[in-house]
Amino acid sequence: MTVLVTGARGGVGRRVLDRLHTAGHTVRASSRTPAELSVPAGVDVRRLDLNSPDTFEAALHGVVKVFLYAEAEGAKEFFAAAHGAGVRHIVLLSSSTVEGPDAAADPLARHHAVVEDALSASALPSTVLRPGAFAGNALGWSHAIRAGQPVELPYPDAHTAPVHEDDIADVAAAALTGETLIGRTLTLTGPRSLTFREQLAVLAELLGREIPVRELTREQAVEGMGRFMPAPVLTSLLAQWAAAVGKPAGTTGTVRDVTGRPGRTFRQWAGENLGAFAAQD
Ligand SMILES: NC(=O)c1ccc[n+]([C@@H]2O[C@H](COP(=O)([O-])OP(=O)(O)OC[C@H]3O[C@@H](n4cnc5c(N)ncnc54)[C@H](OP(=O)(O)O)[C@@H]3O)[C@@H](O)[C@H]2O)c1
User: Fold this and answer.
1) CB under 8 Å to 136, separation ≥6 — which residues?
2) Which fold has domain 135-160+191-249+262-276?
3) What are the angstrom distances between the C-alpha of 100 and each of 94, 221, 242?
4) Which candidate, 92, 90, 78, 68, places its Cα nearest to that of 186?
């Protein structure tokens, strides 16, 4: 049984690939630039661009299960190709933004909803994973922290319940290797709501030094973050953060239900990734 892992260079995809390979499954890894993929020996590598249907057939040949990143353009064609290739289960990495009160007007939510809708219209057996904010988003602060500069951010008191990418991968691997999660939509969060300021305080404590925060106005954030983030994504994030100021994020017990152990905390994530924030001599 070959499992295709798309986004095999991605934070979640790489972890899913490792889990399946270590457990002895036959895995195929894909990327838009396969030459840049580094995979364990024996893992088949294919080029797959989810926006380019001409790459679908070769990537899907002989595949029974797929771990899929959400790409709206080409999603319908991908599911038709997967159906034609005999795929029996798709595990989609979607987003909890689709559950937000303003989902219909939120560009990030819409991007994921298009793929979810195409998947349910395809009649392919599926499991939809809807994580909230990733713990790894904190890496966006690493440059400033390493340089000893203030972390500049809008809405520092906005809450999220950061979910560890290892937990998302554990749930994805469980879905891909069993039958019990077929047909389920799973919302994944970390175990605790924390504001951005509280996440930074955890990092500061572990690093043993202060991390100053400089609060940006919305306009300053649009100007600064707009340089490296597509405008629709930024609009969506700013709206989510503005709505989450002083409002603890809800948490789900999905990680515990699926894996039998509690979700990893932000503190654990920070401890494992502290090197990314430590000053370089
Ligand atoms: N960050 C969050 O807080 C958050 C919250 C909820 C949901 N999500 C979901 O999780 C995703 C990010 O996951 P991550 O952190 O693992 O991602 P990541 O590390 O940024 O990697 C993204 C992966 O997507 C692949 N990809 C991008 N465009 C593609 C295309 N056209 N065709 C095929 N593959 C493509 C890339 O593969 P190649 O470059 O190798 O082709 C790459 O491996 C988001 O896009 C969103 O859907 C994120």
Assistant:
1) 11, 165, 269, 273
2) UDP-galactose 4-epimerase; domain 1 (3.90.25)
3) 13, 22, 13
4) 92
Task: Return d(Cα 85, Cα 64) in angstroms, integer.
Answer: 8
Residue with tokens 């809450």: 159
Mutation pick for ligand 1 pocket among 69, 141, 187 (CB with most ligand atoms within 8 Å): 69
Residue whose Cα lies nearest atom 1 of ligand 1: it is 134
Architecture of the CATH domain 2-124 = 3-Layer(aba) Sandwich (3.40)
CA distance 62 to 121: 23
241 lines ligand 1 (CB under 6 A): no
Q: Indicate which residue's Cα is closest to atom 19 of ligand 1.
A: 10
Q: Tens place of pLDDT for every residue, the chain, 281 residues?
A: 999 999 999 999 999 999 999 999 999 999 999 999 999 998 999 999 999 999 999 999 999 999 999 999 999 999 999 999 999 999 999 999 999 988 999 999 999 999 999 999 998 999 999 999 999 999 999 999 999 999 999 999 999 999 999 999 999 999 999 999 999 999 999 999 999 999 999 999 999 999 999 999 999 999 999 998 999 999 999 999 999 999 999 999 999 999 999 999 999 999 999 999 998 76
Residues 6 or more apart whose Cβ sits within 8 Å of residue 190: 132, 135, 161, 162, 163, 164, 167, 251, 263, 264, 265, 266
